[in-house]
Amino acid sequence: MKINLSMGRMLKRVIYVLALQIVFFSRAFGQNIDTAKIEQITHIKGVWNAEEQVFKISLPRKDVKIVIDGWEASPFMGLTSWVAFKKTGDNLLAMGDIVLFEDEVNPIMSVALENDLAVTALHNHFFYDNPRVFFMHIEGFADAEKLPNSIANIFDEIKKIRSLKPSISTSFGGPQISTSSSISQQMIEEIFQTKSQSQDGMIKVTIGRTTEMEEIVSKEMGVNSWAAFAGTHDNAIVDGDIAVQENELQEVLITLRKANINIVAIHNHMIHENPRMLFLHYWGKGPAKVLAEQVKRAFNKTQSK
Known about the structure:
six-stranded antiparallel sheet; single chain
C-alpha cells in the first residue's frame, strides 16, 4: 500500500513537471515572437497558438450598433477585426481582416499603404446590414518592431475617425454633381490615347487586357480596365474598374489613394485564369481633366493595352 502511495505521488510529480515544461516551452516559443510587445504596441490582447506558431490579436467592433436583416448582430458573428503574426526568419509575417464602415475604408487603406502593408481584398460579407460593413484584408512582412506599429496605426486611425464623428457618413462629401453631363470627349480621348463611348454627355473609355482560361480572353470577355465620367468639366465624377495582375495591385492602389480617389472593392472576377487577374473598383470627384489624368496614371501602373 505504501509502495502504491509512493508511486502515485511520484507519478503526480512527473505529470506536474511535464506540465510545467509544456507551459515553459509554449511561452518560450511565443516569446520568440515577443507577444507581450505586440500587445503593448497595439493595445490589443492576443492568443498564442503553439501548434501553428501563430499569435493572433482580435478586436470586436462594439463601438457601433450593427443591424443585419433586422437583427442586432453580435461581434461574435463575424464582426471582429483580427491580425495574425507568424515568425519567418528574422522578421514577422502578418495577415488580417479589418472590419470597417464606409467612411473608414479609404482613410484606413491609406494608412495601411503608407505603413508598407499590402491591401489584398475589399468586400462585403453581408446583405441588408445597417450601417454597411466592409472587410479589408491586409498582409505585411517586416521586423518585429515595425510591423506591430504599422498594425497599431490602423486601429488608432479607426478610433480617431469614430471619436471625431460617431455617426457614419452617408456620402463622400463635396458639391452636388449635376444630373446633366457635358464631359469633353476630345479631352478624355487625348488623355487616355484611345477612342471612347459617349452617351448623354457622359464619356467612357475601356482598355483591354489578356489572360488565358480554356481560351485566350481579353477586352470583350470582361478582362479590361475602364473609366466613366459624368457631370461637368469643373465638377465631375469618375467611376470604373482596373484589371491588375497580383504584382501590380499595390502600386495602383497607392496611385489612386494619393490622388484621393476612393477604392470601393477589390476582388476577383474569374477562376483558373493565367496570369491571375484582380479587379479594383473606384469612385472619385473633382474637375474632369484632373480625374482623367489621375486615373490614367493608375492605368499606366499596369500592362493594359
